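INTERNAL AUDIT FORM
Audit reference: QA-55
Scope: verify that the stored structure record matches its stored sequence.
Auditor: D.O.
Record contents follow.
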Amino acid sequence: MKPVINTLTLLVGGLILSTLSTFGKVSQNEANRLGNDLTPLGAEKAGNADGTIPAWEGGITQAPAGYKVGMHHPDPFAGDRPLYTITARNMGQYANKLTEGHKALLNAYPDSFKLPVYPTRRSASNPQFVYDHTKRNATTGQLTSDGNGISGAVIGAVFPIPQNGQEVVWNHLTRYRGQNASRTSAQASPTRSGSYTLVEIHDSFLFNYALSGQTEENLDNTLVYYKQKVVGPARLAGSLLVVHETIDQIKEQRRAWTYNVGQRRVRRAPNVAYDNPGTAADGLRTSDQLDMYNGALDRYDWKLVGKAEYIIPYNSYKLHSNQIKVEDILKPMHINQDLTRYELHRCWVVEATLKRGTRHIYAKRTFYIDEDSWQIMVADQYDGRGELWRVSEGHSINYYDALTFWTTLELHMDLFSGRYNAVGLDNELPMYNFEAKSKVGDFTPAALRREGLR
């Protein structure tokens, strides 16, 4: 199914199918639409014609009563009930609102996979300084290096009024996720019968691009500093990874180092990229699938298909709750769909097709990106034969202590094997800390060595 190109998509220019890097900044008159008919991040502020998508009214801007930092985030929509549930039997009547991946999952697991669809709540929000920078970026941000880098932007989304597929994906890569964060979560890759081993991981993030007062001159071509430590099980514990996510990865490859427990040595890790296997994912996720998509754009041609309404995972507070256990979520072949929440939202749709002469296990990928947050919500990945192979979902919430809309659970589901990789299981672990005090010096090879030798 091809999404219908709506009015806003037409307004952003007749060259939306181009993947050239000659686009970018818009006029001040266009930028002035931000905060008026467009939200500060570039979404359509108005609801849809039939009222099934409401107007954006600012999203969640404060925590519910009783919330304290450090708590698992209480569901602000706990009183909502499903409007309807999509199953393999009735999916035909909702076909124009379903991604190809969701259709495939409904057909693959007709007796158990379903989509409970709730009222649409446009909960995404960011701090005002992010909105201010986004409006500034609209008139100065540009693609560089044939679309593999950016310039003229800092802190907010680079292209709030996008004109091609690369710009939309750059908005996902630069979206606001706080400034300094840490978390402990678990991932699992259940067998087809449902057995699994939890891998506990501690992550630290320093979002260099988003730091208050940041300037383009001080970025040092670095988008994010990231550190990962495997806490358990014992056979994997102690492994460390540090990544400096560069902005232009053609100009300068992602900088990465690993600490090997057995060798007690720090080594460069150039293979932590593209389709190399993700950490402890049992071969079910590539490195560039983490965070739904990360890394360089150079191996694909990017096509902006348009914008259309889709039923996507959204406001997944139930999956985030500490009132349930991991064993309540993880089931054979897919998670417990009774704990999921889907809503109807407008999504930008981008197709990535593998360039001639390059390699990747995914020959084509289709991304469905939430207009309100620039978060990739669903991704369909195809093999070299053109068959849909894996479907990824980003079950997301508004972390209202930081005013960021981000995943709480990522799922990467393999239609061929009947298995999946679940990333971000935090129900029985401490909550995200958006007040972490990491500094650049904590993400160096020397710091990695010191931590490994403790």
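Auditor finding: record pair retrieved intact. Confidence is low (pLDDT under 50) at residues 1-22.
Action required: none
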